[in-house]
Fold each of these.
Amino acid sequence: MLLALCIGINAQEKEKKARGRAIVQIYTNFHSGFGAVNDDRGFALDRSYIGYEYMPGRGLTLKGVLDVGQSSDVNDYQRIAYIKNAFVGWKWRWLTLNGGLIPTTQFNYQENFWGYRYVYNSFQDQYGFGSSADLGISASYHFAKWIQADVIIANGEGFRKVQVEDGLLYGIGTTITPFRGMSFRLYASINEGSDGAKDIVNYAMFAGYRHRYFSVALEYNIMRNSNRMAGKNLYGFSLYATGTLNRWLDIYARTDGLMSGDDWNEQNDEIAIITGAQFKLGRYIKIAPNFRMSIPKADGVENRYYGYISCSFGL
């Protein structure tokens, strides 16, 4: 109702204040494995985003984005198109409202701080702790320049399924910036189960510092009742740092650790390490050679080593 009211108000806005931007983004890479995964090599098209964001004025935003990527449900040679975002947003002073197929708040802040989504997903996205978009509503409010709080109510199924099961996801978070460059974030959510399935509970803690020439951050994440199974808990940390050498060259390094309670997920538990550089070839092209290593926790499973050249093209 609030969003509809905003649209009515903004209908009176003069057209000359309206503006928009096209969204075109392509993530691709060439990779090669070494040792035990020596045969895993080739070119890959990770994701393609196509959309448009329109801002008619007075804080109103309309955004639609199509996400074309791989799916585990079909052959790897095929691609599936999803609607990633389709929402109306409104910002007035310290308040921001979003409604529709919206970006979720679970790890959006961490993903932006990491800054290399096209190279490697942020921890919670990589290990399936939650979805980056969902159908619902969200609100955020800045009580002061140094503290902000946000809430979200969504289906809890992500943007690929939208709504399959009953129940909703309720999330609340707060971001604190005590001084310039330093930030802390806390987040908690409950994703309701149905027909006897357990609720999924998520907690996320983040601390980061960003300077003009470098950044460093640490996050710790907990997911209880993974896959809606009682006692199937996952834990994990992500430590990452970046450095800016000049206006066209950055470096980065990151280590992740995924653990499961009572080792129920031992086959997937691991320590992952990634390090590399990013070359900015103009405004719209980024090329990032990087090296990756995965150290599985399970006995008898060999370490995996990869070399990647990750690329981002687009507006």
Amino acid sequence: MSLEDHKLKVFCTVAETKSFSKTSEIVHLTQPAVSLQIQALEEYYETKLFDRTSNTITLSPSGEVLYKYAKYILALYSAAEKEIAKITGHTKGNVTIGASTTIGNHILPNVIFDFKKKHPKVKMNIFIENTRKIMDLLNTGAIEFGLVEGEMSKYKVTLDPIIQDELFVIVPPSHPWAKRKVISIHEITKEPFIMREEGSGTRQVTEKYFSSKGVKLKDLNLTITIGSTESIKEAVESGMGISIVSKWVIRKEVKYGSLVPLSIKEGRLNRNFYLVMNKNAIISHAVTEFLTFLREYPYDELFN
């Protein structure tokens, strides 16, 4: 991408985030450098591209016109990149992903490692946060797509279920339930319970499941709220309480016997992990290749 094309990318990012500070984080430039890029475009076109007030930044009429054509130009560059890559067989560029903690810590590293073996010239940038924060990053344009779990209905994005998951109650091997395979919700409410923080996709799906079975949050013996699945596993292993987590996060613990997974008698706690993208997003060839790899990946083999 030439310097002029980069100016258009910076301009579009400011238009979409309505923030010079957020743009500086996304395009890896200082705020003064972002301002200079916009100033250079305004000097070239001899017009203001943004209307700035104390609190907001909006496109001027000229800015609206440039934004429409800039998006078209950047889409053409992306299309050219894809066509040339088909001929040369070379895939390069950047892929910026946001992943919720379960996917980001326990699934994505394997996928990225295998993808990089196939496409070593692609640079991967990963943000790992809870689902709510990943959706915020997507909305501000800081990431190209997200991999999340949880309730998505309030977000205006494209959703593609990509990986299946099941959640289990976990107890230490010393727990009286450790010899069992199934436990009832009524029994769960009587045990000290460890929960993920608000904004976590795992917490959202757990609360929704309990609610569907007539159990409210206040009915649980909630003793600790923790913002880390790793810390939850440690707390359960040490006997501080029980919890509910994804099958993906306890692969090693179940294999070595430090945690015991139990199904819930009233019905399995299943969910999907979703690929989320903004509608009409311009996707580079590198992103396209990674998304194809992601969709075709043999996830079940990670349990072998």
